[in-house]
Amino acid sequence: MNCPKCDSKMEIVSINEIKVDRCISCKGIWFDQHELSDAKKIKESKSIDIGDSKIGKEQNQNDLINCPKCNTKMIRMVDAQQSHIWFEHCVTCSGNYFDAGEFKDLQEDTIFDFVKTWLTPERKP
Ligand SMILES: [Zn+2]
Ligand SMILES: [Zn+2]
User: Which listed ligand is nearest to 90 at the C-alpha?
Assistant: First the structure.
């Protein structure tokens, strides 16, 4: 699979049993449908995001990309909790693409939110 942003090769990196694809050049990260929610639950998963967030910010301007899996035009999504984080989402195969630094950023607050949710069970049945 090639990176949807810079067209370099992507390598497979694993966090526990989850395998994600990371671009060898811009270090953007691709998560398949369930991989993103699974990866969010693992505290150490931010260590896969080794890229330079400066490069990630530049790459973030480029949001007209096609899904590397199914070639559908991807849409821009904003994280519900952290609106400064934009990522690309494929509505066909539900894959998600994060620029370098974005997943780490997301993950630094997500664990906290996850714990918060856990402590205050106010979800409707
Ligand atoms: Zn790339
Ligand atoms: Zn797709």
Answer: 2
| Order of strands, sheet of 18-23, starting from the edge strand that comes earlier in the sequence | 10-15, 18-23, 29-31, 96-98, 86-89, 75-78
Reading the chain (125 residues) residue by residue, the pLDDT tens digits are 999 999 999 999 998 889 999 999 999 999 999 999 999 989 889 999 999 989 999 988 887 899 999 999 999 999 888 888 999 999 999 999 999 999 999 988 765 665 665 566 555 55
For residue 31, give the ligand nearest its CA.
2
- Which residues keep their CB under 5 angstroms from ion ligand 1? 3, 5-6, 8, 23, 25-26, 28
Using the structure block, give the residue that is written with the tokens 């559908």.
72
| Ligand with minimal distance to 29 CA | 1
Q: How far apart are CA 118 and CA 112, in angstroms?
A: 10
